[in-house]
Automatic annotation (TrEMBL):
TM segment ranges: none
InterPro entries: DinB-like (IPR024775), DinB/YfiT-like (IPR034660)
Pfam families, per database record: DinB_2 (PF12867)
Protein name: DinB family protein
DinB-like domain mapped to chain residues: 19-149
Organism expressing this protein natively: Bacillus salitolerans
Length: 155
C-alpha cells in the first residue's frame, strides 16, 4: 500500500534507476527467457514501455471523478507487438533509453497530482479504479516483472 505521493515518486525513480542498470547485462542475458517458454528481459522492458505509453495516453492529471475512459487496448496484441519490437527492431541501449524517457514523462504527469486526487474514482472501460489503485496496480506490475528479470540476473 502506498502511503504518500512522495513514496510514489521515490518508487518510480528507483525503478527507473534499476532499469538503467540493466544496460550492464550481456546480450545473452538480455535475450534469455527468465524461464522456459517465457519472456526475455528485453521483451519485459518493451512490454513495460508499451503500458507506460498507455498510461501517458490516459492523461492521469486530467482524470475527473466519474470519468469513463476508453477500454484497455487488446492485451495480447500489445504484448505481441512489444515482444516483436524487443526481439527484432530495437537495440538494448535504445530500448532502455526509450523506457527511461517514457517513464519520466509518466512521472511528470504523476508529479502534477496531489494525494488529495488519489481518491478520484473512474473507469477504464468497465474496470473501476481510483487514481491510487491505478498507480498501485501498475507499480505491482513493475515489481512482478522486476522479479522475473532478477531470475535471469541471478543465473
Amino acid at each position: 500500500m502506498i502511503d504518500s505521493h512522495e513514496q510514489v515518486m521515490k518508487e518510480q525513480a528507483s525503478f527507473v534507476n534499476w532499469v538503467k542498470s540493466l544496460s550492464k547485462m550481456s546480450n545473452e542475458q538480455w535475450f534469455m527467457p527468465y524461464s522456459e517458454g517465457k519472456w526475455s528481459s528485453s521483451e519485459i522492458i518493451s512490454h513495460l514501455l508499451s503500458w507506460d505509453q498507455f498510461l501517458i495516453s490516459l492523461n492521469i492529471m486530467k482524470i475527473q471523478e466519474g470519468d469513463v475512459l476508453p477500454s484497455f487496448p487488446p492485451i495480447q496484441e500489445v504484448n505481441e507487438k512489444a515482444a516483436h519490437y524487443a526481439r527484432e527492431i530495437v537495440s538494448k541501449d535504445e530500448l532502455i533509453h526509450q523506457f527511461v524517457e517514457t517513464r519520466k514523462r509518466y512521472m511528470n504527469q504523476l508529479s502534477t497530482i496531489g494525494e488529495e486526487d488519489y481518491s478520484r474514482s473512474f473507469k477504464i472501460g468497465t474496470f473501476e479504479f481510483t487514481i491510487l489503485s491505478l498507480i498501485e496496480d501498475f507499480q505491482g506490475h513493475d515489481h512482478h516483472h522486476q522479479k522475473q528479470i532478477q531470475l535471469v540476473l541471478s543465473q
